[in-house]
Amino acid sequence: MINDRVISDKKQLFTHSFITNHFITNHYYKYMIYKKIQQKIAEGKKMLAVLIDPDKGISSLPDFIQQIKAFPPDFILVGGSLIFKSVEKTIEAIKKECSIPVILFLGNALQFTDKADAMLYLFLISGRNPEFLIGQHVTSSYAIKKSGVENLSTGYILIDGGKPTSVEYMSNTMPIPPDKPEIAVATAIAGELIGNKLIYLEAGSGALHPVPANMIAAVKENTDVPLIVGGGLRTASDIQNALQAGADIVVVGNILEKNPELLEEFAKVCKSATNF
Questions:
Q1: How far is CA 245 from CA 24, 25, 86, 163, 186, in A?
Q2: Average model confidence (pLDDT) for the chain?
Q3: Which residue of 30, 37, 51, 146 lies most exposed, with the fewest beta carbons within 10 A?
Q4: Structure confidence at residue 21 as a pLDDT band (50, 70, 90)
Q5: Superfamily assignment of 33-272 in CATH?
Q6: In 3D, which of 108, 105, 190 has the Cα closest to residue 149?
């Protein structure tokens, strides 16, 4: 009887210890990506994210992963506006070869997978389409909550990059004109006030022009959350201009699908840039 009680007590102690350790581990990793972003900004460092579209991909993903390992960005984003190939398999292939944090860049709820380290929970706050303001979020909320994947609530703001883009068409929303920084500022402030942890200024994949530097600077000056800028960044000069204007993280993708060797130059520019 005593032995049974001792065994029972040991089982309870083990179970309690396991649950406690499991909770602590999950709690730590659940906020790791956002803490990393905040820490880098506090240290005056800029960040680079590479966007991989599973459909467009890179002509040879394994080869490109080797390029990434040689000149590592801070983050790898996986996703797109419209995807037919498996997001999950793409993430698994990336994580099998490197330890760079992988963040979901969801075009819709169907793209969600728990294989990523975190996700940009995108709220298309520059548009007026309720489907991308709350509809897709309701559809995916339970699965995301249950998964434990770190959720980075992101105010997503489309900026006219000179031509219609996939995200503009798929979301049925109008981008903000590039000569209207005051609209971008007001939209970004609204995003911050409703609780977005990040603001993302997006000119769109393959944009003819990146987000204007004066718009980036205005948004950065009037908000207190990390600022991401992407779309139309084709050269080291484009990236440098965005960083100098106030971007904390720049996202490149489309140009690397055609010229993956540019990653080395882009990584060097981001590494040398500072907030000071």
A1: 38, 37, 36, 23, 18
A2: 89
A3: 146
A4: very low
A5: FMN-linked oxidoreductases (3.20.20.390)
A6: 105
